[in-house]
Amino acid sequence: MSSFFRISAAAFISLLLIPALAMAEAFTVTHVDDGDTLICENRDITIRVRLVAINAPELSYSKKQSAQPFSQEAKNVLEKLVLNKVVDIKGYGLDDYNRVLAVVNSDGKNINLEMIKQGMAEVYKGSPPKGFNTGVYKKAEKEAKNSLRGIWSQGNKYISPSQWRKKQAQD
Questions:
Q1: Given 50, 114, 122, 141, which residue is catalytic?
Q2: What is the DSSP string of 95-146?
């Protein structure tokens, strides 16, 4: 097989896959790791999904670390919303841990946005994936904050999950 043919075939296959990656795909949520990470299955495919554009409070993963306030509540809310349900996943690439960054929809609801609305997560402070608009998320966060829902009920004692991780690493 000539190298030209191999390159052309690879390019053709890549072009066929681009629309599939942009479309939502149905998966069943089999496990909720925490307030912003899921494990999903579709036939014989298992993926770990990180809800894009949100950051939920951190659970404790060792006896040396303490859990962040509202971490268990965030996990419980996410479980109630999606566990053992069929969800649509729209991916936006992979994060540094090879999790699919995605918007998850269930029962006609954007679950990422729902976590923000319920005060169980903040808007992710880093750069969003290319082409992802966080405007509606920021508006929902402002409303949750003004209503003192969930994490925002802590007032000035609230610490962002990213700051919490840094603090735990120093202790």
A1: 50
A2: -TTSPEEEEEEETTEEHHHHHHHTTS-EE--SPPPTT---HHHHHHHHHHHH
pLDDT single digits (tens) 138-148: 999 999 999 99
Q: Which residue has the tokens 């990213």?
A: 162
Tokens of 149: 């829902």
- 149 as an active site residue: the answer is no
Q: Which of 43, 79, 99, 165 is catalytic?
A: 99
Active site residue 99: yes
Angstrom distances, CA of residue 61 to CA of 28, 71, 82: 25, 12, 22
Tens of pLDDT, residue by residue over 73-109, are: 999 999 999 999 999 999 999 999 999 999 999 999 9
Q: Where are the domains of the chain?
A: 23-170
23-170: CATH architecture: Beta Barrel (2.40)
**Among the options 58, 114, 122, 141, which is catalytic?**
58
Please indicate whether residue 58 is annotated as part of the active site.
yes
